[in-house]
Give the backbone structure.
Amino acid sequence: MVLQKKKYGNLDMIALSFKVSPLYSLIFAVQRILGALLPTISIFVNAQFINTAMAVLNKKADMRAIHMPIILLAAIMVYQVLIGVLMNFVNCRAKIYYRMKLRPEMIEKRARLQYRHIEDPKTADLIKRVCPSVDENIREMYTRILDVTDTVVYILGIVLTLFTQIWWVALFILVSSVPILIIATKAGKRSYDADKEMAKVDRRANYLSDVLKSREAVEERSVYGYAGKLNELYGKRYDFARKFRLKVSRSNFIKNKMGGIITSFLSVITMLAMLKPVTEGRIDFGMFIALMGAVFGLSNRLSWGVNWLVEDLARRKEYLKDLTEFMFLDEQEDADVLPKENMTFSRLEFIEVSFRYPGTDKLILDKVSFVIENGKHYSFVGVNGAGKTTITKLITGLYTNYEGNILVDGRSLRDLSPSEIKGLSSVVYQDFAKYYITLYDNIAIAHLNQQDSLADVEKAVRLAGLSEAVGKLADGLDTPLGKIQETGVDLSGGEWQRVAIARSVMSPAPLRILDEPTAALDPIGESMVYKKFEQISKGKTTIFISHRLGSTKLADIIFVLSGGKIVEKGSHSELMAEEGVYYEMFNAQAEWYAESGHTEHLAEHSTEHSNGTEAIADAG
Ligand SMILES: Nc1ncnc2c1ncn2[C@@H]1O[C@H](COP(=O)(O)OP(=O)(O)OP(=O)(O)O)[C@@H](O)[C@H]1O
Ligand SMILES: [Mg+2]
């Protein structure tokens, strides 16, 4: 690993760059130092050339005396042209090399981040700012440090040469460059702050542009016809961002211009100061012309180059702060370990668990206690936002900042290893993931410990009711899903859900959680899925989360969640007898089923449909 958890400063970029590529770093360094000395060498070569040429013209020297100065001049020119071409090539190669070395590290670090960082918009912004440009920033940062060295050597070379001719002008130039540097540093910091603000605005603008373009939103886009409205919103955000940037650039430009005026004065003063010594013969004419050329170049570089350099350095220093912050973000311990094989449990217990999402005040779970016993089937019921999904996030260890305790066979969940926590449960989430890889891999990734998983994948396909869909795919299980490959096939919403369910079936974890993954199925179909899932989960523990109470009848124990607490607990018949919240919810839905013409007991109904086949009946 090149990148580490540490406070990064400018100079660290040298070490970092050498770690990424000693060869490129060395080439850059040597080239820059040579380049920095060249202007000073040029002063002497130019002066000698002018003096010799004048002597030849005045017939004070032989024609042959001019050969050496011309060869030196030509050598400098050839060097400059060749090194330009060569460095272009080296730069291209280096860019690719830095990217290949650094990007994967960033991606890995990102994958290891704790879940809360991904959900928190502040860190999400930070990640967006830091990750995509890491290779460029580190390479450029090293180049900037070389630029600084280059500039210092360059300025010192010229100022020292000037010093030997007319010392007080040299001193004057040195002193007057201080305010220019200060102005530039401030401008740089402002620039990065502006970039930071822009990143936020950009993120929002980009989001809108994604909605306007994305494949996912195409149906809603055409139904609601909101493209025009969103376009307008996008235009506004974009315009705001543009004006903001312009404001900062304008103010920086004016300050730079002022720096430019100061340095132009420097050149004029130098010229005036040298006139007298030249006429008195204390400075020879060739030296005067060569020095003036160098001082003009210097003033130019002081007003634009150095300004830009210091500004860019200050801006990138802010990047380093971000990079440091990013590297210090907490990681999930052993994020990439595989789930423990053959994990078992007999009792999972929530003891007075209270929970708030990090950075929020709202109590989502308020001293919730319940017990999940191995082999039984459970259901969580409650209105939207009651905290059902939150409970699954705690069981799967995504959040650990809860009060109270969660015990697995008497051991605190916090003390279980990441591998054990992963081995404990499989979840089909509400917003389950769709992986644009082959159907086979979509399912097999739930059990990576297994070498040859073909038989199990086929079984999962059958159990999830996907056999028919697989039969229709050109390459069967090996068909790539999703529309990012030419041969990719997109599945229907319900089929994707079945893929997610197959993944869960594939997982050897003893606790299976279905967090309402069946929204694309009609109530009857959903009920069948749950019924079948229960059957194929014999010997396993299941937790069903559903708003449709037809499926909850299957559970041994139903928990009713409301106001952050478990307000009712019991089997379907017990809760119906209680005539409480559950009773009311169930009756409200029973009427609804009645209207749809399905007054029969849903559970039995589903058994009939899947009769004779092992698969979860097609919801059609
Ligand atoms: N990452 C988050 N940060 C802050 N608050 C959150 C976050 N995720 C969920 N919440 C809040 O926590 C509460 C419970 O959410 P949760 O997803 O657990 O509800 P749910 O019971 O699963 O609802 P639904 O039936 O709609 O799926 C909601 O009020 C929600 O706004
Ligand atoms: Mg939910």
User: Anything to note?
Assistant: The first strand starts at residue 347 and ends at 355. DSSP finds 20 helices and ten strands in the chain. The beta strands are 347-355, 365-373, 377-381, 403-408, 411-412, 425-428, 511-515, 541-545, 557-562, 565-570.
